[in-house]
C-alpha cells in the first residue's frame, strides 16, 4: 500500500487566536487532559495512520513530504490550510483517541521534540510509509521505532512517571504488502504470517519495556481504499485485497489472544460499516458521508499523489470543497471526519479496556 509551535508568549493575543481560529495541533500538544479525565501518556508506533510529523518537511514536495504542504491541513475546506505533518485534511487516529481521553490532540512527533524532553502527553514514533519490515524507501521499521523508544527510556527522557499510566498504539496498515503480487497466494499467506508474528513480538517487547496498555490496529479494508477502487470509478471494493485483510486480521487475533493488557481495534468492521456495508445494513454513520469510496483529494495520475505539482508548479490534483462529506481524504487515508466516525464505533470497548484494572 502507498504510504503512504509554539505560540508567542503574549497571553491576550494567544487567547484571541484560540477563540477565533481552529486550534493548531502543534501548539497545544503539551496540554493536560480536560476536567474529569484520567491522565494517560500515549506512545504511537507504526505508519502514516499514527504519524504526527516524523517525516521531514521539505521545500520540494514528494509523496513522503506532501503532508507538510497544501492541501493537507485544510480543515473545513480552508484555502490556505495549516499542514501539520499528518496524512489527512487535519487530525488523524492518535488525535481522535487523545480527544476521547480528554486531550486536545495526539502526542507530538519524536523527530520534532527537544532533546531529552518527553511531552507529558507522550510521543509518536510512527513514520508514514513504514512497515514491520524495511520498505524500498528505507523508512524506520516498527522495531527501529521501538529501538528509539527504548533509547529514551534508558537515558531517562521517558521516565517511570511517563510509563506509569502509559498507552501505546501500534498501527500497521499494510505497507509490507504493497510490493508483493497479490495473485501469488502462497507467498502472500507466508508474508501475512511473518508480518503478524512480528507485530506480536513487538507488542510483547513494548510490554517488557513498561508500557501498561496497548491498542493494536487491525488491518482496515485495503480493497476499499481509493487507490484500489479507482479502476472501477470508485464503485467497487477489491475483494481479493480484502481477503488478504481477513487473513491478516485472523492471524493477528490468534497471535494476540493470550496476551494480557492488549486490545485490538477492529478497524476492518468500523471502516466497512461506512464504506462497504452489507446490503440494507448501512448505518447512520455511513449515511453521513455522501462520498464513501471517492477521495476528497484526487491526483490526475493514478500513480501520482494528492498535492502533487508539475515542474511549473501547476496542480496535478483536484480537491473537494467539503472534506466532511468524504470518508477518504486521499488515495489511502481517511479525512478527519472519517477517523471520527471510525473511532466513535470503537470508543466504548476501547475506554472499557483502558479503565480496567491491570
UniProtKB/TrEMBL annotation:
Xref: InterPro entries: GDSL, SGNH_hydro_sf
Residue ranges of coiled coil: none
Highest taxon in the source lineage: Eukaryota
Leader sequence segment: 1-30
Pfam families hit by this protein: Lipase_GDSL
GO MF term set: hydrolase activity, acting on ester bonds
Keywords attached to this entry: Hydrolase, Lipid metabolism, Signal
Gene3D superfamilies in UniProt: SGNH hydrolase
Gene Ontology biological process terms from the UniProt entry: lipid metabolic process
Family of the protein in this entry: Belongs to the 'GDSL' lipolytic enzyme family.
Identification of the protein by name: GDSL esterase/lipase
Organism: Triticum aestivum
Organism lineage string: Eukaryota, Viridiplantae, Streptophyta, Embryophyta, Tracheophyta
